[in-house]
Design brief:
The chain is an alpha+beta fold. It folds into 2 domains: 210 residues, UDP-n-acetylglucosamine1-carboxyvinyl-transferase, Chain, CATH 3.65.10.10; 207 residues, Enolpyruvate transferase domain (UDP-n-acetylglucosamine1-carboxyvinyl-transferase, Chain). Helices cover 30% and strands 25% of the residues. The protein has 13 helices and 22 strands. Strand 21, helix 12 and strand 22 form a beta-alpha-beta unit. Helix 1 runs parallel beside helix 7 and helix 3 runs parallel beside helix 6. The mean pLDDT is 98. The structure holds shikimate-3-phosphate. Shikimate-3-phosphate binds next to helix 6.
């Protein structure tokens, strides 16, 4: 479906963004492993997390919609063997985290997903999970899905993560809940810590010693309600939209402000953004608050490579901001972006070119010369929700046509309506 975005004069108002995708995945998985019933409040109900709900149902949990919320009846630590393959759709977080859980289960399962997911690297999780004792087969020797898993009999390992990846960290920690002896993970750089926080919320074993994270075999644990904060990664599109559109003033409410997610705020501030935020409450272990963004004259910056793991999903929208900034923006440390829902380094470069923005691209870096976005460009999402939304935002002030606009529904089903409302177009 193609969507025409007419030139937008200003964006004004308040928005409560949908629930956090990462926390929703984890809430559904741990709710399913708990004993008894609980409510997951304000979850994200979008393509990726509906896939997780379906997979956990196939594994025996009862999950029903209760208005905006999910009611979950957990199976306890022993999941049921499903009668069919488990389809993870487009969701990398789902396939990798659930592979960790299934490695601890004495059942046979097959995990698959859409064409994008079946191209994404799985060796990063199958390698440590096999070291723990799980029997896993997959295409190319277990590097690609479909993956067939027969779990059980796990032992704890000490694992130094070769990549800064919260998904790999989480897969090993989840498997560690079913292993004899301790399981330790060491991160090369801090990544989002929702798994650690959610373990603490449920009273599961978790210890932190600098970059080392330790867990161990879990005892059966009781179900407990969990409230999901708004997704910072969804808020990021509207923040940047307000910064680059003239005469704009937006407030985003109920946004998760976990410091392992908000690297983008640091970079945008350095670019001269008129942004302010306050943490107003702690919600089940996650800081939550509001962010205000107003039109700003941005300038190009050289991004600190250490910030990238703290804004790994926000690089496309940062590129959109850079296209409107005066001067050059250099973004390094982008190797991981090559293996997201699309090759995001290539997808960003192609969309900037489509909008007439000069860009140089290396294997793991982008150099963007801002200040000259042309009108009437075409956004090509490459089947990637974040590319669709980031470049729709980039084209807001000038007008743009977005191909495959439906991909936004993977993480942000109301994105287009919210945009029209805040632009005063409805
Ligand atoms: C996620 C971790 C990140 C991120 C993804 C969600 C998570 O992936 O890109 O959207 O929920 O753990 P990596 O850990 O592979 O970088």
């Amino acid at each position: 479906m193609e969507r025409l975005i007419s030139p937008t004069a200003s964006l004004k108002g308040t928005l409560r963004v949908p629930g956090d995708k990462s926390v929703t995945h984890r809430g559904l998985m741990l709710g399913a492993l708990a004993q008894g019933e609980s409510t997951l409040y304000y979850p994200l109900k979008a393509g990726d997390t509906l896939s997780t709900a379906q997979v956990m149902r196939q594994l025996g949990a009862e999950i029903s919609e209760q208005g905006e919320h999910f009611r979950i009846k957990g199976v306890g630590l022993k999941l049921h063997e499903p009668a069919d393959v488990l389809d993870c759709g487009n969701a990398g977080t789902l396939i990798r985290l659930v592979a960790g859980i299934l490695s601890g289960q004495e059942i046979f399962t097959v995990l698959t997903g859409d064409a994008s997911l079946r191209r994404r690297p799985m060796g990063r999780v199958t390698t440590p999970l096999r070291q723990m004792g799980a029997r896993i087969e997959g295409r190319e020797g277990g590097k690609l899905a479909p993956l067939a898993i027969r779990g059980g009999g796990l032992r704890g390992i000490h694992y130094e993560l070769p990549v800064a990846s919260a998904q790999v960290k989480s897969a090993v920690l989840l498997a560690g809940l079913f292993a004899e002896e301790d399981t330790e993970v060491v991160e090369p750089a801090p990544t989002r810590d929702h798994t650690e926080r959610v373990f603490r919320h449920y009273g599961l074993p978790i210890e932190l010693e600098g970059p080392l994270i330790r867990t161990r075999r879990a005892e059966p644990f009781a179900a407990k309600d969990l409230t999901v904060p708004g997704d910072f990664s969804s808020a990021a599109f509207f923040l940047v939209a307000a910064l680059i559109t003239p005469d704009s003033d937006l407030t985003l409410e109920g946004v998760g402000l976990n410091p392992t997610r908000t690297g983008l705020l640091t970079v945008l501030k350095e670019m001269g953004a008129d942004l302010s935020w306050q943490v107003s409450e702690g919600q089940d272990g996650e800081p939550v608050g509001r962010i205000r963004a107003r039109s700003s004259a941005l300038k190009g910056v050289s991004v600190d490579p250490r910030l990238i793991p703290l804004m790994v999903d926000e690089v496309p929208i940062l590129a959109a901001a850079a296209a409107w900034a005066e001067g050059e923006t250099f973004i390094p440390n982008l190797e991981e972006l090559r293996v997201k829902e699309s090759d995001r380094v290539a997808a960003i470069a192609k969309n900037l070119q489509n909008l007439g923005v000069p860009v140089e691209v290396g294997h793991d870096w982008l150099k963007i010369r801002g200040g000259s976005v042309q009108s009437g460009g075409m956004v090509e999402p490459f089947h990637d929700h974040r590319i669709a939304m980031a470049f729709a935002v980039c084209g807001l002030p000038t007008g743009v046509v977005v191909k495959e606009a439906e991909w936004a529904s993977i993480s942000f089903p109301s994105f287009w309506e919210d945009l029209e409302r805040l632009a005063g177009k409805v």
